[in-house]
User: Fold these one by one.
Assistant:
Number 1:
Amino acid sequence: MNHELAEYLEHPVVLIVDDEFLQRLPMREALEQGGFRVIEAEDGAQAWELLQRESPDLVISDVVMPGMNGFVLCETVRALEGRQHLPIVMATSLDDLTSIEHAYQVGATDFITKPINWGLLGHRMRYILRAARTAQALADREFELLRTRMEIIRRLGQAAEYRDNETGKHIQRMSHYSALIGRMVGLTAQDQALLLQAAPMHDVGKIGIPDSILLKPGKLTGEEFGIMKTHTLLGGQLLDDEPSLLLRTAHTIALTHHERWDGGGYPYGLAQREIPIMGRICSLADVFDALTSRRPYKQPWSVERAVEEIKRCSGTAFDPELVRVFCGNLPAILEIRATFADPTGLDPDLDASDVSRG
Ligand SMILES: [Fe+2]
Ligand SMILES: [Fe+2]
């Protein structure tokens, strides 16, 4: 451990915010005796300034102060990026239950009651600090796990997509279209997030399809198309038996994103609401993006032409309700398309052939 870090852990910096000098003085003494380094502010505004410059490990704030009071200070600090876990302790009067409640509401970590027991103050603050550090470490680890999992999932989807798509932007556009459609049909925020995160894996089964079929520039023979279709089942197998909700959703999408509303899709020939909503949404988003993108076997279509095609397939390939929602939100769809545009640009309306073979 380097010297600076040891010093930091041994002598945490505490910011005292109180307008009364006679409160700050004994508090400073008690805390310094407890091994803390102390900085002081006379009111909320001064504390706010100090917080931007210094990085205290803990804040003890009075509630009633001229100008910015302790509650407003606490609320303002919580809104600051990276300060959600900074321990903020409010000093309130013993009988003031409303203040204590309010303190928690604005994000205070804990409270101490006045008159303060100076002998115990240092111990109490050490305890709060330790708890806060443990919470922060846990949150960091959880975030790291989530980030790693998301990254693995993203790369898995990309690995599949790289095999038949030059840019990998397809999965970004398609998953954002999916989440947008999900929002417009009233899926919960959790389901929208799941869609966004799971849709990139829709074609993960293509990892198991030979290049001779996947990268073939012309039309596929019947036999080749039969093999291509198995990417849904391969994806399903790859993502099977997963305890996480995210991967279960990805499993559903991989299996059902080529089912059709009229029952003529694959692999199972499910129809209408037999097809899970996640699969129905991804199917529409996937085809729209396939239509408007360049692929080894086709040129990109213009948006107008692709939208006409989507409308034409309402009630046959696609859930009519989803088509309605999709067409009613074209500006937002086009915004996503522009955000995740292919670097080479998109040529409108060139000769189109087979548009959605996988
Ligand atoms: Fe796709
Ligand atoms: Fe597919």
Number 2:
Amino acid sequence: MSFEVRYSDLAGRIGKLVTPHGILETPAFIPVVHPVRQSISPRTLRKLGFDAVITNAYLALRHYGDEARKNGIHKIINSDCIVMTDSGGYQVLEYGQINVEPETIACFEIEIKSDIPVPLDKPTGFGLGHAKARRYVEDTLKNAKETLELVRTRDSIKNNVIGQESYRSVEPIWVGPIQGGEHTDLVKYSAETLDKMGFELMAIGSPVEVMERYEFSILSEMIVSAKSSVPTKPFHLFGAGHPITIPLVVALGCDTFDSASYILYAKEDRYMHANGTLKLQELSYFPCSCSVCSRFKTKELLQVDKEQRIIELGKHNLHVIKAEVSAVKQAIIDGRLWEYVLEKARAHPKLMEALYIFKDLQIVKDGTPKFKKKAIFLFEPLDQYRPEAERFRGMVADFKPFNTKQKLVLYPESDIHPFYTTLQYRQIRKKLPDAQVCTYNRFLGVIPAEISDIFPAAHNLSLKNHVLTSRVEDYPTFKISLEKFLFTNNFNEVIVVADEFIKQILKDPNIKALCTKILDFDINAISKL
Ligand SMILES: [Zn+2]
């Protein structure tokens, strides 16, 4: 399997996944299509910009059987796009036990030439007790293992498939189905076991109910538990297809995600927009200029007969999803995924809550470039946790000047970056040539002048202090960073030119005890040093 990552930011990445039916650029939304009844055909979906679809192997087996075996799934759905096949596990969740063996489904998926087949899994859903969820996980792992063994050993099937058509140099990509629901220990165990088995593309299941309840924190924990175990492999999220969740799940490392929401919503006259969903009846104007929204006024679309209206609304919903995926991709290239995810999280308080999972997250640190072309924006306390800031504080914690210094001067950051180019810095140096001079910023912590040109110390734009909260409780990382820096360097003298923010920090008696001189930040401060 070939998966090439071209750009990354946070854990989000733009990559190329090579499949037997072409290259899929990720992140990608994969629309669900019914193998028998399609309101919007895969051909139309391709014209709308979707290079892959997912369909249900179990339903295809039941409805087409040998016809599908003979002609392949691409003929059945009349498209040469990339086809992922879900095993039918979701039907277990919907209708209880389904009457098919894992081996039957696996053979069928090989025979119909699925590009991205999924072994028969047993979705845990949401709300299952730990013991029962564990049994589901074990059942899924057993099926997955048997499927992989079957794929590896049944050369006869492979040879038959190859014999029927020109040789395919690219093999199908079998998916490792991660289950466990909200039980993150099971999710982790599931991901690690499938990884060891040798699956090349991982997929996490069961998030639909979690998302329907807007439990984005639980969804994020599920993704992180799985993703942290398999950070580099391509990663699919089953059942995610609403624009408000796309920035979050991509930023946590989901490369592909599928859903039928575009058409299911349309059936209920639900109109997706970038920040949520509205009933068609509630809309006076369309906040969109896709071909559907340009052609109809809201009242006119309501007059269109139901079947046609579903198709039109479905197309609009797909347009919104596509636009969201494209915006996320552009944010990855621009190095502005953090800003984008935060902006989009304002669509729902539970989305904003979920963002605290990004704190100190290794997969997010690893995916974020060390240097970016554009300055980072710092607006609110949550921004202290962005990986660039955490990385900078980590560097400062170990910082020691080339020549050991006895004296430290801490001076508030000015608008001019880097700090060593400012008039204030030159004045301080003139007055105290032997001192270690540092500036400070509530998001980044202490900034030694020597490294004040390193990203992002000189490459950030933050709100002016007077519009930011001075509550130190909102910036716990600052205090930790200051303490570590003072501990590493053990200065004899610590002179603080204190703005309103650091005055709050100095209320901590332990930190105050380390400071030998505290001056108000005013025009005469430097002369009093
Ligand atoms: Zn539209």
